[in-house]
Specification:
Elements lengths: L2 H11 L6 H10 L3 H12 L4 H5 L4 H23 L7 H8 L6 H11 L4 H14 L2
Helix pairs in contact: 5-6, 6-7, 7-8
Length: about 130
């Protein structure tokens, strides 16, 4: 058993119950629900008025989708030529950076390629900081 579970068992044996933060961690963070709820909240706040007023801006969204596929293919090309070795899940985690969405890139890299999470988080938040 992990150290955390041993400490939880020790606390229960001493008569303590899990606190509010422990329950929040288990329900929201441990199960992975919190990032999804945050993404849904951000999506619900999206204002589509400018898109409806100027439909040409839809091309910006298409460019982000093209960026995802171009980045995945670029990572797989590096693997093909033997320059840097990436698996398909690693290439997909890198590719989601091309979609210009930092939180989604971090969430998916945590699921697909946790070993690349640090580098992807730095890259995602670096370009988010550059956008005014």
């Amino acid at each position: 058993p992990s150290v955390q579970s041993q400490m939880e068992n020790l606390a229960v044996d001493m008569g303590y119950t899990p606190g509010v933060l422990a329950l929040f961690y288990k329900v929201a963070i441990g199960s992975g629900v919190a990032p999804l709820v945050i993404f849904m909240g951000v999506g619900a706040m999206t204002d589509f008025g400018p898109l409806l007023a100027n439909p040409r801006t839809l091309l910006l969204g298409a460019a982000a989708q093209f960026g995802i596929f171009a980045t995945v293919l670029g990572a797989l090309t590096l693997n093909y030529f033997g320059l840097i070795s990436f698996t398909l899940p690693q290439a997909a985690a890198i590719g989601i950076i091309g979609g210009a969405d930092g939180p989604t890139a971090i969430y998916l890299s945590g699921k697909l390629a946790p070993e690349l999470l640090g580098a992807i988080a730095v890259a995602a938040y670096s370009y988010m900081a550059l956008v005014p």
